[in-house]
Amino acid sequence: MTRRVHEVMTEKPVTVEKLTSLAEAARVMRDASIGDVLVVDEGRLRGIVTDRDLVIRGMADNRDPGETTVHAICTADPVTVRPDDGVDQAMDLMRRHALRRLPVQTEDGELVGVVTLGDLTVERDPGSALAAIAAAEPDT
């Protein structure tokens, strides 16, 4: 039987409002030991910001991290999956769009999770080096 996204996703995604500063978003990521936050406006998904975005689109462009908002650098309208989509479908979307993370939304737009390349690797190939890395506790 095909596994579903809701079976492998990380529940309760970490979000920030679109006017959150880059500095605050970085602190949120640090405190939660994650590499991305979902950008919302009035509870609706508007984008995604990764730790790499903070460096490439923020610091490397000399943006002031205390004054620049996540909305200014986020990937707007990210590709998403639904909780009942198959794991194979999520993997195909990641492959086609060269993504490492997919927000998980219900049909009515409620954010319920994030599925990552690591989540899918642990599911598909639990003995692989990437699965071991994905399953390891983060450095503090």
TrEMBL record:
The keyword Manganese does not apply. It comes from Streptomyces subrutilus. Residues 9-65, 74-130 form the CBS domain. PANTHER family: CBS DOMAIN-CONTAINING PROTEIN (PTHR43080:SF2), CBS DOMAIN-CONTAINING PROTEIN CBSX3, MITOCHONDRIAL (PTHR43080). This is Oxidoreductase. Keywords: CBS domain. SMART domains: CBS.
